[in-house]
Amino acid sequence: THFGFKTVEKARKASMVADVFHSVAGKYDLMNDLLSMGVHRLWKRFTIDCSGVRPGQRVLDLAGGTGDLAAKFSRLVGPTGQVVLADINEAMLKVGRDKLRDKGILVNMDYVQANAESLPFPDNHFDLITIAFGLRNVTDKEKALASMFRVLKPGGRLLVLEFSKPQIELLSKAYDLYSFHVLPKIGQLVVGDGESYQYLAESIRMHPDQETLKTMMSEAGFEQITYHNMTGGIVALHRGFKF
Ligand code: SAM
Fold this sequence. Notes:
Elements: H1 5-24, H2 28-35, H3 40-49, E1 58-62, H4 68-77, E2 82-87, H5 90-102, E3 109-113, E4 126-132, H6 141-151, E5 152-163, H7 169-191, H8 194-206, H9 210-219, E6 223-230, E7 235-241
Parallel strand pairs: 1-2, 1-4, 2-3, 4-5
Antiparallel strand pairs: 5-7, 6-7
The structure holds S-adenosylmethionine (SAM).
């Protein structure tokens, strides 16, 4: 039926994700630095290095949040290029826009509130799409990957930066301990919201591992898919092309 279990579950997840990011938006950047001990900057730098982006190109930073990647791409594509920072969450988008404006980045940036599952862009539009720590939060990941495939130009590439499966058992255990016990406590202390960070830990555990995500990308039509583990596989960068 229309209001069957799946529909209700999906709606519940979507509204929970909305609550989480509304709640943390203002302190999002601080929390990223704190919780990853600054390492998220290195993960993002590696992503930029793998982007192959050139002046004049069109880039979509999807689930772009507070715009860390978008800011870098804006410089790389230059005034003849274009960067779209898209996010489903108004509060995150606003923090991103304010931050980028403060940095003096204006000319080639667009801000779009959009759901990754149904992107409001023409077919074959972007040279590059990045989604960093975003796919995990999307309810229907298959649908989102198909939508990304559609708006990517032939020859274009998709980069998915996301938490993944730690490659060493001991690291995996330590990491579980950290994410389920330490992370929510820091969330409670700094943002006054331990629950959102409890969600974060759960969403990381639920997220597809390296090989599963690779298969999902392939099923969406992407080719020449490779991935690169970082920090022992706590995070992985997947790359795929549309031909
Ligand atoms: N990319 C940024 C970064 O790396 O710092 C932000 C990542 S943040 C952990 C995840 C973002 O995904 C949030 O801003 C959230 O609003 C966004 N998001 C969640 N579900 C989404 C969806 N279905 N479509 C687009 N964005 C979504």
